[in-house]
Design brief:
Oligomer: single chain
Strand order of the largest sheet: 3-4-2-1-5-6-9
Structural class: alpha/beta
Strand content: 5-15%
Number of strands: 12
Shape: globular
Radius of gyration: 21 Å
Number of helices: 12
């Protein structure tokens, strides 16, 4: 199934026995949600038998019975020749910005290569060294541009294209649904938390992103790409409605509630305020020493849809303000369908600057620009722009992205 940069969609080259029809769009269904991995495991992984597999995965690559897919493959006699670990590692033991390095997995004896931060060229070298002919990707994403797993996906696809390896995505639901929100990345601000221009909350599954990456960003070399679809998932479905078990995709993503707020509230990583790391509710709790009840009052007065705020005090155990008492707010999402995490975060940034001009500020390294995708958000807030003005500034580019992604979508 060789595909080129622009022709693969019209040729129907991504159709597989598990992809319904040739349109690339799943029909509406009420059947139970079944990730691709569970479907292949039920067939004892016969679809992948006879290949020299290299599996890019992490603790979220699990089946309904919570067995890891690599362990399940080995038990079925379909033994990968290598595994690749993204940020936090293949088995998930590393904190933010870390990985597990290269090692031999003690359970299976399979060599594990550290893919976090690897370039396409260095990852291509790992694929060649391990003798991989098919790269399998199975990682649960949370739908935000700055969550690094989607860029591990892109880099691995580029590496596979370089060495002529096949690429198979075992798709999973997007836990925050299929709608897109937020600003587009300016390529001048590309980084490890945003390599290519997509919007902040992309509203796509990993399989859909793989199709988008192949058609829009990869060089015109041929790529043997296959997406094995989720069965029974719809774009208007949030994780709580899937019936699936939540496996934290990273140490600071403990619950589906975290995922709902993360595409917006992660922007506080680019500020001097704590984003709640070192608490039991990261990204749902935001604050700093000196913040008091006034922030909650200002936010409540805005009547933002789908969210309520609670005045809270907390003492982080790591990251910002370790062992210092912070005041702030805790978010509770009351209606995921009307909640806009990015608009909510913008409102919180604007009011924090208004209420606490002597406390609020940006990190000196201007990480906010990489997270938001340009210097626009920072400059507009510093200039005193209103929330509606800021959010309105990216609506045209958001609409353009929604139209551009349409041919690559797999689910209604």
């Amino acid at each position: 199934m060789s595909v080129n940069r622009r022709g693969f969609l019209t040729a129907g080259a991504l159709a597989t026995p598990l992809l319904a029809g040739g349109s690339g769009i799943a029909q509406a269904t009420t059947e139970a949600v079944a990730p691709a991995a569970d479907q292949l495991a039920a067939q004892e992984w016969r679809k992948l038998a006879g290949r020299r597999l290299g599996v890019l995965s992490n603790p979220t690559g699990v089946l309904a019975n919570l067995d890891h897919i690599v362990d399940s493959m080995v038990a079925a006699g379909v033994r990968p020749v290598a595994a690749f670990g993204p940020e936090h590692g293949f088995r998930g033991s590393a904190q933010a910005g870390g990985s597990e390095g290269d090692y031999t997995d003690p359970r299976t004896g399979i060599p594990v290569y550290d893919a976090y931060g690897a370039s396409a060229e260095s990852l291509a070298g790992m694929i060649t060294k391990a003798g991989v002919d098919t790269v399998v990707f199975d990682i649960a994403d949370v739908g935000a541009r700055f969550y690094t797993y989607i860029w591990s996906l892109y880099t691995a696809m580029a590496a596979a294209a370089q060495v002529g390896a096949s690429f198979v995505v075992l798709d999973r639901p997007n836990p925050v649904g299929g709608r897109a929100f937020g600003p587009m990345l300016d390529p001048a601000f590309a980084s490890g938390v945003g390599l290519k221009p997509i919007v902040q909350q992309h509203g796509m599954t990993a399989g859909e992103l793989a199709r988008f990456f192949a058609g829009e960003f990869l060089p015109p070399a041929k790529l043997d790409l296959e997406v094995v679809r989720v069965r029974g998932w719809r774009r208007d479905t949030f994780f709580a409605q899937t019936g699936l078990k939540w496996t934290p995709p990273s140490p600071n993503m403990p619950t589906p509630d975290t995922a709902l707020v993360y595409p917006g509230l992660c922007l506080f990583e680019g500020t001097v305020f704590s984003e709640g790391r070192g608490t039991t509710r990261p990204f749902e709790i935001i604050g700093a020493p000196g913040v008091d009840w006034r922030w909650r009052e200002a936010l409540t007065a805005l009547r933002l849809p789908g969210v309520e705020f609670r005045e809270t005090y907390f003492v982080p155990t790591f990251s910002k303000f370790v062992n210092q008492t912070c005041g702030g707010v805790q978010l509770t999402v009351t209606d995921p369908r009307s909640f806009d995490a990015i608009r909510t975060a913008v409102a919180m940034l604007v009011t924090a600057k208004q209420v606490y001009p002597g406390l609020f500020g940006w990190r000196p390294d201007l990480a906010i620009d990489k997270l938001s995708g340009s210097d626009r958000l920072r400059k507009m807030i510093d200039a005193g722009a209103r929330v509606d003005e800021i959010v309105g500034s990216w609506q045209a580019e958001l609409a353009g992205f929604v139209a551009r992604r349409q041919p690559y979508l797999l689910y209604w």
